[in-house]
Input
Amino acid sequence: MKRIGLISDTHGLISNRTLKFMENVDEIWHAGDIGTVSLADQLAQFKPLRAVYGNIDDHILRRMFPENQRFFCEEIDVLMTHIGGYPGKYDPRARKEIQRNPPKIFICGHSHILKIVYDNKYNCLYINPGASGNNGFHRVCTAVRFVIDQDNIRDLEVLEFERTNFYR
Output
């Protein structure tokens, strides 16, 4: 059993509220736009970190993390990228991979909009954790955590707070 904390679009900042939400997870997954190497290092010191780079990430972060990650957690096949679109409107690059070999979970960021939906066409759970950072057009900061237990995904929870309360 693994407890997963999922974030995206931190743009170099993460609130103490989000870190507290992640205290009991086994791993943090970051779906891109990390923002700074120091934040990546902070997260990696806090919990094991699995991440992909996003469109705002510099050449150093792009050397540290891949554009896409395809991996198994327990018995669940996971595909994570930053720009992925959403069910019915996947980014062409992501759609090609999903059509070729559908994962059980498809994770992306970029939109700054929390969206969790089951894609019946490809029999996969789509998760965009929204934006966890304080930069961007979003008004609400979000993060997700869930449990993967063998081939089950369960106990999904969402953290949500007004961006104006980022430092409180």
Notes: The chain has four helices and twelve strands. The longest strand covers residues 152-162. The radius of gyration is 15 Å. The chain has a mean pLDDT of 97.
